[in-house]
Structure to design on (696 residues):
């Protein structure tokens, strides 16, 4: 009971008598938004207890917090969820602290939880103090100054370009082949097609009458190299057969492996 | 890919005299508004010079003068003596006023570094707004440290050389009250002798456990 | 704010000691973004001080050091000692890759010189920016050749001696033609007909066709 009156004394505004006091009380309570969360509020409340944070009664603090929250709700002030979570947790902590420990419960003791909360408050307090000390230090641009007229270190930056001949040639090749681009196809370099041979033979055979060696009809540039020669020979032979079939030419061969002769039919 | 050719081609000649090296370091530090590291200095000194020795001599020479040679992390910078600040009213810059949240966040990072955002929130008891961290990064007072080797690999924050420079600190070890806070166990995550503590430190990563070990 | 009170703090009665005045002037000149006149200094010094005397003492103190107190018109400023100016310059050589546009433009000039900008654009199929040409001129890899004797008398570009040096060529004629490039596997695709002249000159002006004859 003594405790009760004591903490109510700590919050005299809640017990306000006059209208002005009442308004002031509401102003304070409404200022719950001014606190940076429940821990901040708890720290403020703990300061009102005017005791060393290390010796603080968490039970007493929990009661203050709960009273604060209850009062805020009476005034129908919207409280953020975390304030209510803290209230619920503190109510739980309070019951742990008040009831004898349950030997079957292996969770942390109420004392340990209270100690951790006290530690958190003390740590937050310490960080606030540290922030204040930091800001109270001499600061550059306020208490001490850097050279106002720094001399620029001139950087003579020379670029060496790493282009080499290969880059140059590749660039050129890229430019020159840009419009030659086509989808990939198997390139048959040394192949003389039957269509090519047909076209050539038609032109060359014509209406002339004398027999001529088929080899003589191989195109220029397709005689020397064996692969090319093979392809051109096969194509020209096939073309000759085709022309013979259509009756445009005649063909003859004296014996196996002997040269093949053709002549145009009139 | 940048190769810095020292202005004085490293020569076969002897290094300049200590007095001459001191002059050179003095010129370089005086010319720069930013702290220069020993390495920066060494790179620009003639071959065979000893930047550290020149700096030490210079610090002695300037001690007690209107301009002093301060150590800032691994670097050095000339700064006006702080007792003369009142004469520099014209040079004063408007310091951006930090919100309480930003000040506390900065202090928590400085004293607990490397520290994750979750740890900052745990200490402050409220969420850290994006803007707060952004503002401190923007001021170049904090930067990202190594990722914590815990699930999610959260990023950590550490303070920077410009932070040390701004607050006239030689290193993060010189933060006011650091020793006392540590002795009181207030840089830990749990109360001393607390049986609820699964681990003693905020950090679950033993490599990162040491304060201020990175840079 | 730490206020280290020097033994002789300016009081209402006495001016600071000469040494203290020197410190003050030293700090002010150091921090100021512009040279300060004696008058500026005098205005900012405590009552009863003598700026001229402090400046004179300071100039003596800095004489022969890495930084000197120079008189600039009617004002004073710290400057790097003139013999140490070389420390304020850093030679950096940075290796860079030429942009694709620049490389292609250069290649076209090398293969087709003398060539006009319009011709380069015709070959590349895209516009050639002024900057690309400027960069190549800047690198001294190309230069202006003779004007083409066609309407508008457009300038032509040719490659230079430094270009040949850099690419290790005796002359631009040594550049391999398309056929050779193809044979060397440098071309990604084959031309439909092998007979297109690789080194076909674009030049419409036979006089100018000769490489390197101009100048």
């Amino acid at each position: 009971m003594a405790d009760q009156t004591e903490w109510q004394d700590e919050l005299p505004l809640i017990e306000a008598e006059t209208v002005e006091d009442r308004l002031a009380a509401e102003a304070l309570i409404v200022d719950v938004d001014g606190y940076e969360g429940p821990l901040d509020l708890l720290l403020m409340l703990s300061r009102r207890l005017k005791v060393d944070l290390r010796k603080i009664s968490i039970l007493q603090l929990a009661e203050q917090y709960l009273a604060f929250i209850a009062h805020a709700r009476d005034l129908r002030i919207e409280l953020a969820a975390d304030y209510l979570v803290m209230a619920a947790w503190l109510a739980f902590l309070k019951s742990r602290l008040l009831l004898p420990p349950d030997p079957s419960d292996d969770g942390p003791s109420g004392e340990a939880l209270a100690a951790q909360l006290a530690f958190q408050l003390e740590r937050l307090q310490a960080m606030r103090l540290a922030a204040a000390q930091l800001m109270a230090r001499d600061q550059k641009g306020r208490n001490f100054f850097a050279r106002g007229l720094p001399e620029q270190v001139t950087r003579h930056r020379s670029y060496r370009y790493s282009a080499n001949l290969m880059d140059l040639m590749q660039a050129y090749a890229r430019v020159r082949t840009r419009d030659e681009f086509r989808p990939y196809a198997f390139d048959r370099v040394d192949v003389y097609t039957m269509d090519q041979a047909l076209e050539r033979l038609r032109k060359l055979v014509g209406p002339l009458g004398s027999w001529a060696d088929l080899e003589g009809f191989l195109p220029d540039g397709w005689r020397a190299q064996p692969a090319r020669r093979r392809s051109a020979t096969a194509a020209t032979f096939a073309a000759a057969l085709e022309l013979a079939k259509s009756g445009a030419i005649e063909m003859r061969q004296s014996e196996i492996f002997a040269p093949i002769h053709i002549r145009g039919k009139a | 890919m940048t190769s810095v050719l020292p202005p004085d081609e490293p020569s076969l000649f002897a290094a300049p005299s200590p007095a001459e090296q001191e002059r050179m370091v003095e010129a370089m530090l005086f010319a720069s508004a930013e702290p220069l590291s020993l390495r920066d200095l060494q790179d620009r000194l003639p071959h065979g010079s000893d930047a550290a020795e020149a700096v030490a001599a210079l610090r002695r020479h300037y001690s007690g003068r209107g301009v002093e040679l301060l150590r800032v992390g691994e670097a050095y910078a000339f700064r006006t003596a702080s007792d003369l600040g009142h004469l520099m009213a014209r040079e004063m810059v408007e310091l951006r006023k930090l919100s309480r949240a930003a000040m506390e966040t900065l202090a928590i990072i400085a004293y607990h570094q490397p520290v994750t955002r979750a740890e900052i929130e745990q200490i402050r008891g409220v969420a850290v707004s994006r803007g707060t961290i952004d503002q401190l990064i923007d001021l170049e007072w904090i930067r990202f440290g190594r990722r914590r080797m815990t699930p999610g690999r959260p990023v950590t924050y550490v303070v920077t050389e410009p932070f040390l420079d701004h607050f006239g600190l030689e290193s993060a070890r010189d933060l006011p009250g650091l020793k006392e806070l540590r002795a009181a166990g207030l840089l830990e995550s749990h109360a001393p002798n607390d049986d609820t503590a699964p681990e003693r430190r905020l950090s679950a990563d033993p490599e990162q456990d040491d304060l201020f070990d990175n840079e």
Observations:
- The domain at 100-214 of chain B is CATH 1.10.10.10 (Arc Repressor Mutant, subunit A).
